[in-house]
Amino acid sequence: MGHAGRVPGLRRAGHRLPGRPQHCEDDRRGALAVLFFGFCSVLFIQRLLRDRPELVLDDAGVDHVRLGRFGWDEIAAVRIREQRVRNTSQRFIELVLHDPDAYLARAPELIRRTASMNARLGFGPAIMAVNTLPVPPEAVLDAMRRHCPGLAVQQP
105-121, pLDDT tens digit by residue? Predict the structure, then answer.
C-alpha cells in the first residue's frame, strides 16, 4: 500500500473534510443553488445580448420585455413599491391592472408562475424591478403621465 494518489487531510471514502459531517441536505442545497444561479446567469446573459429595450412607452401603452404589452385602458394606476429583505431593499414599479386575471391568462409562463408569490407579498402580477431600468422610477412615472395624462399614480 503506497501513498501514491493520496491527499493529506482527506478521507478516502467520499473525500470529506475531517470533523465536518456530510449530509444529504447539504447536497440538495448545493444542487438548488447551482440551478438557481445557473438560471439567473442565463437571464443575465440574455439581457446583455438582446437589442430590445427593457421598457417602451408610447401613446398606446406600455411594452415591457418580461411582462409584455399593456394598453393604457388596462392599467388602473401605477405606483412605486419597495420590498425590504433583511438589510436591503428592492424598488419596483407596479402596474395596478383593472383585470389581473385577464392579464395572467396571456402572460408569459414565468410571470404566471411567480404571480402567487407576488400576491403573498402584496403585489399584483405586473411588477418591474427598477434596477433593470436605465432611468429612475420617478422619470418612468413622469413619462407614463405624459403618454396617458389621466393615469392615476398611487402613493405607497
Answer: 999 988 998 888 888 88
